[in-house]
Amino acid sequence: MAFKSGFVNIVGNPNVGKSTLMNILVGERLSIITNKSQTTRHRIMGVVTTDDYQIVYSDTPGVLKPMYKLEESMLNYSKSALEDADVILYITDVLETRTKNKFFLDMVNRLACPIVILVNKIDLASDQQKVEEIIADWKTLIPKAEVYPVSALHKFNTENILDKIVSLLPENPPYFEKDRLTDKPERFFVSEIIREKVLELYDKEIPYSVEVQVETFKEEESIIRIQTVINVIRDSQKGIIIGKGGAALKRLGAHARKEIEAFFGKKIYLEIFVKVSKDWRDNTFRLKGFGYDV
Prior knowledge:
alpha/beta, three-stranded mixed β-sheet
C-alpha cells in the first residue's frame, strides 16, 4: 500500500472544542484548552506519523470579526488553513447557531478538498432526535461534507474520525521526519502554558489583554531556567496580575511551573515579570515580536 500524507486543518467558531479534538487526534497536549473564547491565537501544527501515513494537523483560532490587529492576524490564520488543506475538519457543536460567521462558512462551502464536519458535545443534546436534526441541517448547509457526531470530552467516535481522515489522505511521501511532533519551538509552549493559567485564574478583560514572552530559556542537565514577561495593556491590570504582596503572581507561577515541568519532564526554575505594553494588540511591531503574522 502506498504511503499517504496530508494537511488536515481544523477550523470553526470559538469554544466548539477544536483544541480538545486536536490534542486527542495528535495524542499529545499541544493546544491549550479553556472555556473562554480566544484561547487559541496561533495556528499550531501537530504531526502524527505511522508506517502507513503522516497526518499534519493544524489547530486554528476560532473565527471572529476582528476588532484589533491581533484578531485580524487570528482570522488570517483560520483563512490560511482553508488554502493549504488536503482535508478540512470543520468543528461545530450542538449548541451553536448553524449560520454563525456565515462569511467563513461560505468560504468553506467553496472548497474543492474533502470536508468533514464534526458535531461536537453531543452529550449535551437533549436526545438523539435533536442530534439527527442538527446533522441533517449541516448536510443541507454544506452538501459535499460528511457529517459525524462526536464528543471530544468523552472521546466518543474519535477513532472512527481518524479512520475517515486516513481514508481521505492523498498518496504522498511524508512532509516531516518521523519523530517530528510540531512546528513550534519549546519557548512557544512555555508562553502558551503561562497564558492558559492566566485564562484560568483571572477574570473579565485580563486574559484578553495579556501576551506572554519567553525572554530566556536555558536548559541544564537537571533543570531548565526560564525567564518570562507578561505584557498587559494598563497599569491597573499589572496590579491585578501581581496581586496584594505578589500573592496572585506567585499562585500563577506555581500553577504554570507545575504544568511546564509535566510538559518537559524536567525540573523548572521559572521567573515571571509583568510589564505594561500599551496597545500591543494594535501595534504591528509588537505583534511581530510576539510571533504573529501581521
